[in-house]
Model the fold of this input.
Amino acid sequence: MAIKYIPEPFRIKMVEPIKMLTRQEREQKIKEAKYNLFNLRGEDCYIDLLTDSGTNAMSDQMWAGIMGGDEAYAGSRSYYKLEDAGKDIFGYDYIQPVHQGRAAEKVLLPLLLGEGKLSVSNMFFDTTRAHVILSGARPIDCVVPEAKDPSKRAPFKGNMDLAKLESLLKEHGRRIGLVVMTITNNSAGGQPVSMKNMRETYALCQKYGVPLNIDAARYAENAYFVKRDEPEYKDASIKDIIREMFSYGDTFTMSAKKDTIVNIGGMLGVRDSASPLVIQIKANCINYEGFYTYGGLAGRDLEALAIGLYEGIEESYLRYRIGQMEYLAARLDDAGIAYQSPVGGHGVFVDAAQMFPHIPYNEFPAQTLCIELYKEAGIRTCDIGSYMLGNDPDTGRQLHADFEFSRLAIPRRVYTQAHLDLMADALIEVKKRSQEVKRGYRITWEPPILRHFQASLEPIK
Ligand SMILES: *Cc1c(COP(=O)(O)O)cnc(C)c1O
Done:
């Protein structure tokens, strides 16, 4: 059943031409890229859905702000503007800019974790998982079981499994150095976390004396889902919802390349300015990122960030944004193509295990689908499955992911309804000939951590 496409709450005043290579050229390019889509050049992708991170279209106001950025090394006016916006929206006392999300993780996580420690999350994003491991600690995913069943339509599939979290807290106590609440739950398919779940998770953390960090890359999309699907919040403003969500955490780390609609930037927040963490964060930031009033960003970036924070929480924008996902998902429903449903906030996560049931996890069905989509229509997507998950850090053995998703991440304010139709048509074509794709891929070279960015692959004959 087709659904209505929600018209863009903006119009276009600048364009960037894109071109589609021939199928023969695309087959050559992906081979030269060693079947790793991260090795492709952006200009060789007709529609680039590799990520929604930093690929967003800034507004005229944000570009205008860039001209007004204050480049003072210390105490830039743009920093104070960002600090004001951060305090206003999140209600946190201390706002630290950093150059992107993983920089916030690098600054914060070693302060709370280390050798012998554990960290529990509703699901770690890959760089967050990497920083837990780099600190010497071990990550434990603790998402509700329905997240692992892509065909099961349930609201808030990103939630923390509270019973499992409490048993972990009981068993390990303070050995758990940090609980991480990822909103929306990226690795589970951009699935939202309910306000109720955030509140109850925080209550458990307080009971056992473990701090909670909000991994807040998609906080605005999460707030929209709370408003849409949690009856108590249907009349609340997005901003009030965000305020309450952030009251259920002690710190936040944020990639601003997502919901803040900028091309680079990140933030770290501490709710209580009296926390001893503030001084430690400043020290780490000076070592890794730069002086704490710029955190690895230019003054102009801070300015765009301060403006984007407000644009990203506008309800009309969020309705259009989530509407794009719902439109694409409805077209896939019509074609019987499975995805993590209901559709989440920043993309459609197609269930490649359903598309290629004959390809086992260790031949990477999701990576296989990504390669087929590129060959079909020049669409670049990304594996969120066993290929991305990698090997067990202790045994070196290939891990078996809970799902095999090919992620069509939708950049913000970039693609139109016709582009979305082209994505759906390409998936339908690949599904038609899915039986002809007999085998998956093997890895011929891989680095030890975050391998999917760099590994080389070859098709299994
Ligand atoms: C993108 C992302 C990060 C890392 O942020 P970068 O800006 O890519 O370094 C961390 N957590 C989540 C949930 C993300 O989506």
